[in-house]
Specification:
Elements lengths: L1 H24 L21 E7 L9 E6 L4 E4 L4 H19 L14
Antiparallel strand pairs: 1-2, 2-3
Length: 113
């Protein structure tokens, strides 16, 4: 009889733990750009990484987030031609740095993939 009671208690605790974990995972905050800088361009040599922000996936606007070599994040409009040029530069820079094991001066601030 005691074995059956222990089993019920175990599954009860397991169920409660699962519910609590599910609730806490659903409330993960998202770091979003609230506006973009449209009046100035960022020089591509200062940028080490970028990522896209898509509206409707937890954020209210579309943006490209440029990460500088010092780790600062800048929100810029994704549809500008200069932004696409910076993205292409970063993609080529990452290939170069990966090829040279991130040991060159050009690779300062570039994250390992």
């Amino acid at each position: 009889m005691a074995l059956w009671g222990d089993t019920k208690l175990f599954f009860c605790i397991l169920f409660i733990s699962f519910c609590c974990c599910t609730l806490t995972l659903a409330e993960v905050p998202v770091d979003c750009c609230l506006s973009v800088v449209e009046d100035r361009q960022v020089h591509k040599s200062t940028v080490a990484d970028f990522r896209k922000q898509i509206s409707g996936h937890g954020c209210s606007i579309d943006a490209t987030i440029l990460v500088t070599r010092r780790g600062r994040e800048l929100c810029v409009p994704p549809n500008e031609t200069w932004v696409q040029e910076v993205e292409d530069h970063v993609i080529n820079l990452k290939k170069y740095c990966k090829k040279h094991n991130y040991k060159r001066n050009r690779c300062f601030g570039v994250r390992h993939e």
